Amino acid sequence: xxxxxxxxxxxxxxxxxxxxxxxxxxxxxxxxxxxxxxxxxxxxxxxxxxxxxxxxxxxxxxxxxxxxxxxxxxxxxxxxxxxxxxxxxxxxxxxxxxxxxxxxxxxxxxxxxxxxxxxxxxxxxxxxxxxxxxxxxxxxxxxxxxxxxxxxxxxxxxxxxxxxxxxxxxxxxxxxxxxxxxxxxxxxxxxxxxxxxxxxxxxxxxxxxxxxxxxxxxxxxxxxxxxxxxxxxxxxxxxxxxxxxxxxxxxxxxxxxxxxxxxxxxxxxxxxxxxxxxxxxxxxxxxxxxxxxxxxxxxxxxxxxxxxxxxxxxxxxxxxxxxxxxxxxxxxxxxxxxxxxxxxxxxxxxxxxxxxxxxxxxxxxxxxxxxxxxxxxxxxxxxxxxxxxxxxxxxxxxxxxxxxxxxxxxxxxxxxxxxxxxxxxxxxxxxxxxxxxxxxxxxxxxxxxxxxxxxxxxxxxxxxxxxxxxxxxxxxxxxxxxxxxxxxxxxxxxxxxxxxxxxxxxxxxxxxxxxxxxxxxxxxxxxxxxxxxxxxxxxxxxxxxxxxxxxxxxxxxxxxxxxxxxxxxxxxxxxxxxxxxxxxxxxxxxxxxxxxxxxxxxxxxxxxxxxxxxxxxxxxxxxxxxxxxxxxxxxxxxxxxxxxxxxxxxxxxxxx
Length: 656
Fold this sequence. Notes:
transferase, FAD, SAM-dependent_MTases_sf, about 650 residues, Rossmann fold, S-adenosyl-L-methionine
C-alpha cells in the first residue's frame, strides 16, 4: 500500500538558511546555494561539457529539496550554445514542499539572480502533493523534470532510465542515513549509463565503501565552502553488476513513425512524437479523426479511487495529472479545447462506501485539490440538484470533447504530420530495417522503422499478435433534452454518468454490453441509462419527456477492453522468438522478453481513454527515445502489451 505523502516543514536558521527540523540539517550551505550547486554538482560531473552536442542527457538526483540543483542545471543548459537537444532531470523527494513553502524557501537564494524566472516557472508547474512520478516540461519540452514523490529507498528501484550523471544530495549521512545505504547505491548502479559520473558534497567512509561495492570509482577533491573534501567519480564496475542494461534509444536510420488510428490514443502519440522532432504518417480508415469511440460528444476524466491505492488507482492518478498538464500546454500554445473546468462529482454506491472512502482519503492524506469527500448536502449544493448520497469531488476533474482534443494534438504536430484518410491497414511485414503497412487490397501504403498501433479492436490482428486478447463492449449514450437536467452544474458519475453540455443538453450513459455488435440505437438502452442516472439524481425520476425513449437522441460506440481492464501500452514482444525460447522464459520477467524492434501499441483503453492516452503516448515516446520512463516500472509492466504472453510462458501454455 502506498504510504501517505508528508510535506516538508519549512524553517530557517538565524542566518536565513533554510533548515529541516525533521532531519536537523540545512538544505544548502550558508556560503551560498547557487554557488554550492555549481561547484559540487555541475563541476563535479564535468558539466556542461559532458552534455554538449548530445541528443539526450539525463541527470538523476537523490533529494530534490528546494530544487536549487535543478534550477542551476537548467540555467547552465540554457546558457550553453552547444547544449544537448533534450535535458532530463529526475529527482526523488520523500518530503516535498508545498508550492507556497517552495517559493518562500527559494526567495532568498534567487532574489538577485537570473535564475529567479526559472524558479517562478517551477513554482507555476509545481505538482499536487500526491505520491508517484510527476513529469513537468519546460522550454517547449526540451527540459523535462520528473519528480518522484516518495521514499527513495522504495522509489529508486521502480525507476527505469539511463543516467549520465548522479547528484547525490540527500541530507548529511549522519542525519539521514536512509539515503546513503548500499541498497541505494545498488539501485543507482542499475540505472547508470556507460561512463556515468557522480558528485556529492560528502566524503564519509560509509559512502565511499558503498559506492565502491556498487561498481563506482571515486576520488576525493576539495570541498565547497567550509567542507574540506567531497567525492566525485564514475560508474566503472570490474564485473557484471546487473541483469539488464538500462534503456537505450531505438536504433533507426530516420526518425519516422507510422501511427495507425487517429482516436485519442493515436492523436496523443502523434503529438508526443512530433514534439520530439519525429516525422509521423497517420493512417485512418475513416474520413477524419475521432470517428469511433473518440467521437462521443463528451467524455469524463477523473482518477480511479480505491481503498488500498491499487495499481489501477496509481496508473489513473498518473494519467489524470499528466493529461491535465498536456491539455493546459496545448491551450497555452493557442489550441482550443472544448472542456468543462468546474470539477466532477462522484456519488458513492451506498453510505458505507462513502464513509470508507472518506477514511481512505484521510489515511492517504490526499490534498483537497486532488479529491475531497463531500456530504449529501454538500454534493447537492455542488451539483445544484438533489443527490441520493454523498461522495467525493475531484476539483480538477470534468468533461472534454475528445474530437477537439484530437484536432488540437494534430494541429500541434504542424508540418511533421502527414495525414492519410480512407486507409484501412490490414497487415505489416518487416523488410530490412523498416515495417511495411499493407491495406486490405494487399497494397503497400506506408513504411517506417516504427509503427504504433492505436486502432483498438484491430490492433492485435493487424500486428499479427496471438497473445493480446481484447473484447468489444457496446456503449450507447443518451442525450437528454434541456428540460431534463437543466439545473445540473457539474458532471456527476457513479452508477452511470450525467454531463451537462454547453448547449443545455445532458449527456448520459453509457451501457456496457459485452460482445454485442449491434450498432443501432435501442430504446431499452436509453431507458437503462436514464434509470441508472436517476439512482444518483432522483429528480430525473419525475421528469416527463416529450419524446418516447425510442425518439431520444444518442450514439453507439464500441470500447476495446482487456480481461484485466488495463490498457495495452508499450513495446510489442517478438512472440515467435519468445515461443522458440519458451523453456528458457518460463520464469521470465518483462525485461527478459525479446521485443519486436519498432512495434508499439496504445489500445484497449476501455472507458478511460482520456485519462490514459497522453501518458501512454509519453511512455511509448520515452521507450523509443531511450528517455526516462514517465511512470514507475511496475506500473508500466502492468500496461505492457506482452503481459498476456508472459503469463502464458509462465504457465507453459504459449502457442505459436
